[in-house]
Amino acid sequence: MPNRFEVQPWELRASASASRDVAESLIQRGDIAADESIACLSTLGGFTSVSALATIARSWQGQVRYIGEGYFQAGNALRMNADAYESAEATAVNALQLPHG
């Protein structure tokens, strides 16, 4: 017997929204953390490691942003799949209601 599944577009949209919320939060918090880290480096004047630490902070910010963008893209994909499923279902329902002959 074949496996059966149901698609609930509202659940896909809820997951899409949650994924985009995670993306926005990650990106925002990553930006804040990097900016605050770099601001703190000004107190380390004279240390040779300051420029390396600034580079690390910006690199970390870029990686967090990259992860956040992945969550944002996943959210968009979920939303697009919900739309596509609803469209396909509407097309199938309309096709079944057409008279044959």
Describe the structure.
- The chain has 101 residues and is mainly α.
- The protein has a single domain, classed as Helix Hairpins (Orthogonal Bundle).
- The chain is 80% helix and 0% strand.
- It has 2 helices and no strands.
- The longest helix has 48 residues.
- The chain is rod-shaped.
- 9% of the residues are buried.
- The model has no long low-confidence stretch (mean pLDDT 89).
What is the fold's blueprint, element by element?
Blueprint: H1 9-41, H2 50-97
Helix pairs in contact: 1-2
Descriptive tags:
single chain, 101 residues, mainly alpha, Helix Hairpins, 2 helices
Strand content: under 5%
* Overall strand count: 0
Question: Tally the helices: what do you get?
Answer: 2
Multimeric organization: single chain
Which structural class is indicated by helix and strand composition?
mainly alpha
Question: What do we call the CATH topology?
Answer: Helix Hairpins
Can you tell me the overall shape?
A: rod-shaped
Mean pLDDT: 89
Helix content: over 70%
CATH architecture: Orthogonal Bundle
Question: At the first level of CATH, what is the class?
Answer: Mainly Alpha
Give the number of domains.
1
